[in-house]
Design a protein that fits this description.
Length: 257
């Protein structure tokens, strides 16, 4: 069951559950949020993350999933802390009215103690920006993506981290506070990962693999390019956070919550 005194962590634009699960294991009430369903069991709000930035708080409707009050979801049979009966509410109180009965529990602090966002990089990454001069409609989508990031950065959270590759944010917004690679944190992969931070320290290497930046990593070809070829799932595979970086977030940021 969720500890109402646990730090509340929002992981926006994440469907893999990698970062959410790392903070859950560290004793946080961690929620992921994405337009896609979560690929792993856990607290997940499937919908627009801007709902949660506008004061909505994701909840479990106890009266729907656990009418017997025995801790087992009547829909899935899972523990109610792992079931899928989640939804949003507002006004700092978790509730749902059903035949005049209010279900749920009050929340003393509806804001987030930590918000981590992984906004889509399709129109932000430097690898695709050269198309903007030839496709005006794409340049407009880059502008929309930048504004979305600025909206995320204004989240009602004590601490905010925004992750993205090298690209438009460095010139259209500001330089990142740190740039790290999976091989800094025990994963044999090269992928420059930028973080823009508010009230958080930068990630420093936690388990640096030998060879440094010149080593050829498992995710690279001889030319240094990513090995993943074109496929319908390529964007999903490339967007997932490496476990070592998720663990590094917990190592660096969990003690502050």
């Amino acid at each position: 069951m969720i500890d109402v005194d646990a730090p509340r962590v929002l992981v926006g634009c994440e469907f893999s559950g990698t970062v959410r699960d790392a903070f859950t294991a560290a004793g946080c009430e961690a929620w992921s949020c994405d337009m896609l369903p979560s690929e792993t069991l856990g607290l997940h709000y499937q919908g627009d993350v801007r709902h949660l930035l506008q004061g909505w708080v994701p909840v479990r409707y106890t009266g729907e999933c656990d009418p017997e009050g025995d801790g087992a979801c009547a829909v899935s049979g899972l523990d109610t802390s792992l079931c899928g009966c989640y939804g949003p509410t507002q006004d700092g109180i978790e509730y749902k009215e059903d035949h005049g009965i209010l279900w749920g529990r009050p929340i003393d602090r509806p804001q987030w103690d930590l918000a981590i966002f992984h906004p889509p990089c399709t129109y932000l990454a430097s690898s695709g920006l050269h198309w903007n001069t030839r496709r005006p409609e794409r340049a407009a989508l880059t502008e929309e993506a930048v504004q979305f990031v600025l909206t995320l950065n204004g989240a009602n959270a004590k601490r905010v981290a925004i992750e993205n590759p090298i690209g438009a944010l460095s010139s259209r917004w500001r330089k990142p506070d740190c740039i790290t690679h999976p091989w800094h944190h025990g994963d044999d992969a090269s992928k420059a990962t930028c973080f823009w931070l508010t009230n958080l320290p930068p990630l420093t290497p936690t388990n640096e693999l030998p060879g440094g930046r010149t080593a050829r990593r498992a995710n690279q070809t001889a030319s240094g390019q990513n090995k993943l070829g074109p496929s319908p799932d390529r964007w999903k595979l490339r967007s997932a956070t490496y476990p070592g970086i998720a663990t590094a977030m917990v190592t660096h940021w969990r003690p502050l919550l």
